[in-house]
Amino acid sequence: MLICDARGRIVLANGALARLFGHAPGALDGQELEVLLPAGLRAAHARLREQYMDQPRPRPMGIGLELEAVRADGTGFPVEVSLSPLRDPEGPSLVLATLHDISKRKRAEHALQASEARMRAVFETAVDGIITIDERGIMERLNPAAERMFGWSEAEVAGRNVSMLMPEPDRSRHDGYLAHYLGTGEQRIIGKGREVHGLRRDGSVFPMELAVAEMRIGERRMFTGLVRDITARKAAEDEVRRLLQELTGANEELTSFAYVVSHDLKAPLRGIGSLADWIATDYADKFNDEGREHMRLLINRVHRMGALIDGILQYSRVGRVRETRVPVDLNKVLAEAVDLLAPSTGVTVRVAPGMPTIVTEPTRIGQVFHNLISNAIKHMDKPDGHVDVTWADEGAQWRFAVTDNGPGIEARHFERIFQLFQTLAPRDRVESTGVGLALVKKIVEMYGGTVTVQSEPGAGATFSFTLPKAQR
Questions:
Q1: Which of 33, 58, 263, 285 is the most exposed place for a label (fewest CB within 10 A)?
Q2: pLDDT band at residue 398, thresholds of 50, 70 and 90?
Q3: Which residues pair with residue 399 across a beta bridge?
Q4: pLDDT tens, 84-121?
Q5: Which contacts (CB < 8 Å, 24+ apart) does range 115-124 have?
Q6: Measuring CA to CA, which residue among 382, 357, 387, 391 is closest to residue 372?
Q7: Is the pTM of this model over 0.90?
Q8: DSSP helix, strand, coil percent of the chain (3-state; round to 5)
Q9: Average pLDDT of 221-248?
Q10: Could you tell me the CA-to-CA distances from 313 to 259, 268, 422 in Å, in that order?
């Protein structure tokens, strides 16, 4: 508080005011009132002060008289002022001024304004529809997205029941549900998300997702509904269901095809093979050199056809026929694979010690190593061949590699060799169906890994593949 005279000089300032403005006690006494204002406002304030002193009257705090004040260190801050004339018949007119620092209030007002601006921006630009209703179900606000969604403007629906946006039977049930919730607190939609149907202005019904939140404004209970049109999503879900049905049918056809190949094709093929072996054995002395060569080619091609059918069946089962995933000790898997392949005396297979135990399908991981090692042995062109199987822990994944010192592969063939039925060597020179590497690639990628090859002609090849430790 301070008291000033008709000329605007401070007669008395209390300690609270001195502290507020950063002055020593008594330092303001005798100074002009305008010393408490920024320099740019002093002249205008002096004129207002003179007008007030001509007709002094009480002015309570809170009627809009706010000023920018300045402290002794030059920093400004907002104050609210109330004025009370002090009348003394025997002395000069005085005025009591009460000043209140409203910095916190101003900051709160600015924060509230900023918050309101942000909320208004969200409300106006939200992609989803936003509808606010009172506890009677009467609509108060619709954002632009809701206007577009339902075909009504905010002005047209204000004051009307929100049930007008619902098809039957939801429209008839809505008021009863709201009354039940207000009476019992039992929630069905409020505080939860739910799929319902909406009614547009043109009478069309559409699926939507609705979430309702409750809020209180003083004694009033209000509800805000967040609405999302899910017509496109429902159409996509229907399409996915249709495609899944088609895929299921295709899988069933593939299963039937695999059964036919396994039984109806392999049975006569075995008969042809047995008959060819019998003829080649019992009539060996009847054939000349050309005849014996033809029989050899016939038997080899029957065996190749059988291997090709087996390869196709294996390839078709990957991803369709699944095993239970169990911990698999790769040391045992590789020992069994090498033992089954029984490499010739000219080829040495070396497996790095300490192979990890991984959780996977035993048959599938066995097929991967079997095919890679078999491929290296099959194409070995050196009398002292060696095949090395190594592994590495790369944190999130395992990396395995099969390296040989065979003929190598030109870079232009790297992609081709992983395609089904593709071989680089003549079929009559190397018995190969062209399924092995394609099978390896399909199995590894099914587990979320990758297969790569590094090679140069004459310098051998390294086939490496990764397996994520957390497989999908």
A1: 285
A2: very high
A3: 392, 466
A4: 898 767 766 899 999 999 999 999 989 988 888 888 88
A5: none
A6: 387
A7: no
A8: 45, 25, 30
A9: 91
A10: 9, 17, 17
Instruction: Please choose, from the candidates 251, 247, 207, 213, the residue with its C-alpha nearest in 3D space to the C-alpha of residue 229.
Output: 207
The yes or no reply on domain 126-229 and CATH 3.30.1490.10 is: no
The CATH number of 323-468 is: 3.30.565.10
Q: Which CATH class is domain 2-107?
A: alpha beta
Of 404, 381, 410, the closest CA to residue 464 belongs to 404
- Tokens read off for 431: 């018995």
Q: Which residue has the tokens 């606000």?
A: 141
Delimit the domains of the chain by residue range. Answer: 2-107, 126-229, 234-316, 323-468
Distance CA 20, CA 81 (A): 14
φ and ψ at 171, to 5 degrees?
A: -60, -45
Phi, psi dihedrals of residue 447, rounded to the nearest 5°: -85, 0
Provide the mean pLDDT of the chain.
85
User: Which amino acid would we find at residue 273?
Assistant: G
Check if 126-229 and 323-468 are the same fold.
Answer: no
**DSSP string of 132-170, one letter each residue:** EEETT-BEEEE-HHHHHHHS--HHHHTTSBGGGGS-TTH
Residues with Cβ within 8 Å of 285's Cβ and at least 6 positions away in sequence, in order, are none
Q: One-letter amino acid identity for 9?
A: R
Structure token pair of residue 100: 């209140």
HEC letters along 48-104: HHHHHHHCCCCECCCCCCEEEEECCCCCEEEEEEEEEEECCCCCCCEEEEEEEECHH
Confidence of residue 450 (pLDDT cuts 50, 70, 90): very high
